[in-house]
Amino acid sequence: MTDFEHLWAMQPEAFAAFMCSAGEDSLQSRSLPDSEPDDQPPYELVNGVAVIPVEGVIMRRSFFSTGLKDISAALDAALAAPDVRAVLFSIHSPGGQARGVKEVADAIFAARRVKPCAAWVDGLCASAAYWLASATGAVYAGPSAEVGSIGVILRHMDKSGWNKEMGLAFTYVTAGSYKAVGHPDAALSERDMGVLQARVDAIYEMFCGDVAQRMGLAPDNRAAWADGRDFLAGEAEALGLITAIVPSRAEVIKQLLKETHMDKDELARSHPDLLAAIQREAAEAALKERDKSEAQQAAQATASALALMETVCGKETADKVRALMETGVTPEQLRAAARVLGDAGASRQPSGDPKADMLEAIKQATPAPVSDGSGASQDETAALIQRIGSM
Fold this sequence. Notes:
Layout: E1 8-10, H1 12-21, H2 24-29, E2 44-46, E3 49-55, E4 58-59, E5 66-67, H3 68-80, E6 86-93, E7 95-97, H4 101-111, E8 117-126, H5 128-134, E9 139-141, E10 146-148, H6 160-166, H7 190-215, H8 222-225, E11 230-232, H9 233-239, E12 244-245, H10 249-258, H11 264-270, H12 272-313, H13 315-327, H14 331-342, H15 354-365, H16 380-389
Parallel strand pairs: 3-6, 4-5, 6-8, 8-9, 8-10, 9-12
Antiparallel strand pairs: 1-7, 2-3, 10-11
Helix pairs in contact: 3-4, 4-5, 11-12, 12-13, 14-15, 15-16
């Protein structure tokens, strides 16, 4: 790949300054610095939160910039570490190369299912850097932070004038009609412009689609939030590009820790009262679930018994039993009523009023006070006797 083929998701002014101070060819030829010792985690651990820095221009590999490979390695290490409960990306970056950013953003998005993730804008979070931040779904920024610059840029350099002055002429011998699209030794043709514009548009669509999905923005309103502008934190919050304005990174870490889950031992040490309340609620829920299960089993047993009675004794008898059960009458009350209605050896002499005799018998079998019959219309038990007598 030559330098004119690279796509960038980067602030235009930062892009121009970067290209002047360090050309892509020189970056590709420089060696990488020595990596950190193996025993040092590639993040800062703060109260159980892995803080992963994203500083400077984003490139595939790091030199004086942030490397996508380094970000991926740090994320993998944080997800695997048992002492890490959440992940925070601390970002101060104008963006960088577009190639490879989506893949890392997708990995961050997937990491949210493993551990809570968020991004803290430490001054600037633009373009490719915002693509990564938005993948967390939770972007926090200070009041003076700049956020946005959602867009894609590609620079074509026409060296033909300089070549002519230097007496140089270049001929490209290719196989494949598009092999030398956008080469720098001629003005950009209309065809080549169309090819490069389509490539820029494709990356832009990916960028906007990811941001809209992960930050909950309306894709059809992207002209407001994805036109390449930077926004101060207040504007960015109003557009939905950031979750909240907070005073410091420490505040974001505190917010992240609220989303984490402690094990029982850690909870007992740090919050014994909370653990006791959780255990109490769990016990109450278990009792309610047991009672519900027992009620369901009893209902199933009753339904089975009534179905069997209907088969053996007929529907009319089963309906009478079902009606009695629905009144809430107890077996003891029924046995007392049966003695009045049919037991000749009952100890009490009948009064001649069947309902009064039945009421008196039920009084004896019922511990709760029962009216003597004068207020039968207001007494549930008397109403029950009336229903039994009408069967």
